[in-house]
Specification:
The protein is an alpha/beta fold. It has a domain of 238 residues. Helix content is 29%, strand content 16%. It contains nine helices and 13 strands. Strands 4-5-6-3-9-12-13 form a seven-stranded mixed β-sheet, sandwiched between helices. Strands 7-8-10-11 form a four-stranded mixed β-sheet. The chain has a two-stranded antiparallel sheet with strand order 1-2. It is a single-pass membrane protein.
Length: 409
């Protein structure tokens, strides 16, 4: 009897030992697999993931265009009452519509889909201002169209334009303001009139920015651009005042003048803007498509009649100037070293592919066309600005990723 009891105790001890070993093995295996084996499931969200499958940091500016006629465009041209006749291509006769259906897809992450309500909530009791030239104005029109599509009551929004450099869009429900301020060279120039600025000679006061900056310095979000109006070999530069006759005028190489203008801008920002309170953005250069031979088209042709994308990855045309891009990067690096954070939104490469996105002849013509122009549509095609809905909507989606979704480069 005693032997039998001892045998039973031995069996029970062995059983418990084996069970303990098995449990320990299961736990060890589960821990090991959770760390090294089965991939973790990454939750999807309406935003930007910080890294892709390769583990690299997310770069919103490297990617490809994907045709998407189910979720794009983000608004309809005819339904945006703030649309500009310079950009309303369908209104002025453009029949092909594919330019409206392209979505930008970064290689290593997703670009968040624009949500007008979320942006307005972020802009509640705040002011956002676009400062620059007609390309920045086009981006502003895009943003206003995107935001206004989320406002169901038209009485709760309005636009104010009295012919000055400043145009205001206001959402009354959110007390949110989205402005555009015309300053094509950022510093003071003889092209500062918002309507009468096409002059035979361009003159800049390279050290003077207060005339413009006092209108936008106190904003919560500032989006700057300046490129198109600098595109000439030399620019006449003024040290002095337009009102006085004792100023010093000198023709200076464009790249050097551009650099001096951005130095003036950066000095103003450092003294007058608190980047901890104000978000600062600089839009990189918007490329042009004025020489079809650059992408394999016919000589002496341009974007007229183009309805497809350039599919060569990394394509760069001569409508973009890398030297000017480096000047902007140097300015941003200098600001960062002095404690100022300004984010460049690099729209250049992604826009290079879009030779199909310009108004071409499909816009309001401000002057009567001559007979020889009518016979040669390429001669008056606009291959600089962009149709809306279109490419600038993606520029604003990139801004949205930083403003609302909290993306960091």
């Amino acid at each position: 009897m005693a032997k039998r009891q001892l045998l039973m105790l031995g069996i029970r001890a062995s059983f418990h030992t084996i069970a303990a070993v098995l449990v320990a093995g299961v736990i060890f295996t589960a821990v090991y697999l959770s760390r090294n084996g089965l991939p973790k499931e990454i939750p999807q969200r309406d935003g930007v993931s910080d890294s892709g499958e390769s583990g690299r940091e997310c770069n919103l500016f490297e990617g490809k265009w994907v045709y998407d006629n189910e979720s794009y465009p983000l608004y309809k041209e005819e339904e945006c009452k703030f649309m500009s006749d310079q950009l309303a291509c369908e209104k002025f006769g453009r029949k092909d519509s594919s330019y409206r259906f392209w979505r930008w897809q970064p290689h290593t992450c997703d670009l968040p889909r624009f949500n007008g309500t979320k942006l307005l909530e972020r802009l509640r009791n705040k002011r956002m201002v676009y400062v620059g030239d007609s390309l920045n104005r086009g981006q502003w029109v895009s943003m206003v169209c995107m935001v206004s599509s989320a406002i169901t009551n038209p009485k709760l929004m309005y636009m104010h334009n009295n012919g000055s450099n400043l145009i205001t869009f206001k959402s009354l429900e959110y007390n949110a303001t989205i402005d555009f301020y015309w300053a094509p060279l950022l510093v003071e120039s003889n092209s500062d009139d918002p309507t009468n600025h096409r002059l035979p000679e361009r003159i800049v006061r390279i050290q003077s920015i207060e005339k413009h900056a006092r209108h936008w310095t106190e904003s919560d979000i500032i989006v700057l651009n300046s490129y198109l109006w600098w595109r000439r070999p030399h620019i006449k530069t003024l040290w002095g005042s337009f009102e006085k006759l004792d100023g010093i005028y000198k023709e200076v190489e464009m790249v050097r003048v551009y650099e001096m203008a951005l130095q003036t801008l950066s000095q103003w920002l450092e003294v007058h803007v608190n980047s901890n309170l104000t978000k600062l953005f600089f839009m990189s250069m918007s490329p042009t498509h004025e020489r079809a031979e650059e992408w394999g088209g016919k000589v002496k042709q341009n974007c007229y009649g183009e309805n497809s994308l350039i599919d060569k990855e990394g394509y760069n045309g001569k409508g973009s100037d890398p030297k000017m891009m480096r000047i902007v990067e140097n300015m941003l690096d200098g600001l960062k070293k002095r404690g100022m954070n300004m984010q460049m939104i690099n729209i250049t490469q992604l826009s290079e592919y879009r030779k199909d996105g310009h108004p071409s002849i499909y816009r309001k013509q401000w002057e009567a066309l001559k007979e020889d122009e009518i016979l040669n549509p390429s001669s008056y095609s606009d291959c600089i600005h962009w149709c809306l809905p279109g490419v600038p909507d993606v520029w604003n989606q990139l801004l949205y990723a930083y403003i609302v979704d909290g993306h960091h480069s």
